Amino acid sequence: MPWPLLYEAVARIALDIDSTLHHYWDLLQRIARERYGVDLPYEEQRDWGITVLERDAIVHCVEESHSDENIAAAVPYPDAVETVRAWHKAGHWIHVTSHRRRSTYEATASWLDTIGMPFDDLHCSFDKVPRCVELGIHVLVDDSPVNIAKARAAGIVAATIIHPWNEEVAGEDGVIGARDWKGLKERLDPVLEQLDAAPA
What we know:
44% of the residues lie in helices and 13% in strands.
């Protein structure tokens, strides 16, 4: 369930889940191997599309990865929960958003509560960036190069945990990238401080 803000919200931060709050690829790789006998090496996933499987097979793998059991078993990246807690305590509004089906909402909310991740809003749907625009989001943390580009086009600060498939976009001007949450916090905190200092 959403957590109460301790102070008036300053920045509005949107957070993706898979490959942003936890390491998702190993789960997807295991499912693809078990169901289709196809390996998806993390280090070889150099672009956003998965071409070694048909689209229907990819959809099946992704949907299985979002079963209640798999959602509950996810382990957050080191420092992810602590960073978001610190942001929330500082008064920032946290919107957790994922391209998961709406039917995963309850399991996803339960997982966030279990790991102690504060959030003010949770959105499981396929209209992530348009929803961020509607909510007046200032910063989106997401691993998808597509969502990063859409966020930047909408005037939203884009940030990401760096993966093989987004290394190039993470190196572009205006995109904040880091290998882990400790580094991401170090790079995003000054941005949040600027938003804090900006006139309403």
